[in-house]
Amino acid sequence: MPYKSSTIKSKWKKTKWLLEDAYFRRYVPQTLLFSKKNLTSMLNDYNTVFFKPTDGSGGKNIIRIRKTDGGYQKQFKTKKTYYSGIDQLYQELKRFAGNRSYLLQKGIRLAKSNGKPFDIRVMVQKTKKGSWVGTALFTKVGSPGKVATNYNQGGKIGTFRHTMEGAGFNPAFISQMETELKRVGVATGHNFDRHYKGFKELGLDVALDFSGRPWILEVNTRPQVYPLLTLKDKSLYNRVISYGKQYGRYK
After folding, report:
1. Sign of the C-alpha dihedral computed for residues 229, 234, 240 and 245 taken in this order
2. pLDDT tens for residues 51-87?
3. What is the DSSP string of 107-151?
4. Are 63 and 120 in contact (CB under 8 A)?
5. What parts of the chain have a pLDDT lower than 50?
6. How far, in Å, CA of 114 to CA of 186, rounded?
7. Helix, coil or strand: residue 64
8. Are 25 and 213 in contact (CB under 8 A)?
9. Residue-level pLDDT at 145
10. 171-195 vs 11-19: helix axis angle to the nearest 10?
11. What element of type H or E holds 23?
């Protein structure tokens, strides 16, 4: 059976779907299309802004911009470049983007587990009867010094509880967050169904800030699950695949 689950590449389209719904607004960091005006206003409001391709995947081509005392620091992978003014920075980002559409997103200072930044993947899938369920929660623990936590960018896959414990969160908070994230994942499934037909799975990338507040960074309509094979315990991978077989996901 071929893979049958709708795929939407545009991060901007998916972000707008969430922002139309009051329930999600507190979970979505400010996100705008890249333009000089939007770059200026975002850097007026926030110390860190991410610049990412609207149709990107795997954490590729993401740039982190930070305000510094003397201007701005741009980081791509591990390379840092400094700019004294916003005009110079804008021209460089525009050159980097070329003809590709880019987004600007408020930077979230990620919680750290044993000194390493991490974010959370919330996997939701449809049952045979068509109802959304949270099937997997796991973490992507980044390499210090990298811009993205993605597995493709050298990040490691971790289990949710173990990573959260490493970040100093207590067991009651961890259980409460697990429940909340699964609820948000299922709500996202219902939101996407209202906008487009045929979704069978979604993978939410969720950042926790230092206070433990969750933020939806983006929603993947064709999330990778093979990195789960790097965990000793294969039960999460097997669970996702058991749901996935009904719509043609076998790996």
Report:
1. positive
2. 999 998 767 899 999 999 999 999 998 899 999 999 9
3. PP-B-EETTEEEEEEEEEEE-TTS-EEEEEEEEEEPPTT-S---G
4. no
5. 151
6. 30
7. strand
8. no
9. 64
10. 100
11. helix 22-25
